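Example (one chain per record):
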Amino acid sequence: MNRPAPGWTFPRVFAHRCGGALAPENTLSGLRIAAAMGCRAVEFDVMLSGDNTPWLIHDETLERTSDGIGPVCQTSDDALGRLDAGLRYHRAFTGEPLPTLAAAAALCLELGLMVNVEIKPAAGHEAVTGEIVATRITELWRGAPLPIASSFSEVALEAARQAASQLPLGYLSVKPPPDWLHRLNALGAYSLHCAVGELDDAVLDAAKANGVPVLCYTVNDRPAADALFKRGVAAVFSDRIEKFRTGT
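Predicted structure:
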């Protein structure tokens, strides 16, 4: 299967969940801080609301990162739009809104940030989330280089591929399974994303031989990242983007 590639070269470092540890996760403030720190690329999570609108949030429920209560997939856009996504991080971010994918896309384009959208479906919503998020990505980035869309859900990735044949995909797994290359190729995915502690040289060798970039999460130490780059890793996701402020 064809493997659509991003229209940009992977930078060494992606700010994890928008701004890493420097801002409330998955927020517009995080995007602004990442850009201000000189970070060229960001990663964030996207899930559907009860109205099937893509919003930036990691968990299936609202409690950890906002002042809301309950499942994201059962909450209306109107209710999500009233939430505070900054208070639980620090009072300085009180009033920070929970952003829609549309709001995040607009700011990323304004700031010139490259993006990895992680499709984060609620249980039972894998296919519809992949389809809607992929469709919205192609609409929101129309005329600009597309982000790469990754997911732990192969169902979501398959739906994304069906909805947007030109969208670059990242095959995301904690530990790449033995048949990871077959799965990646079946999806038409471009890159392999995995946990840093689960990457071995055999995977790296196979990836290099097949032209598959490897990205690792979550790497918060500059020497550890440099060692990964020497091994052939293309990029890392980091919460400590301040440690990579030069040379990224």
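Caption: The chain is about 30% helix and 15% strand.
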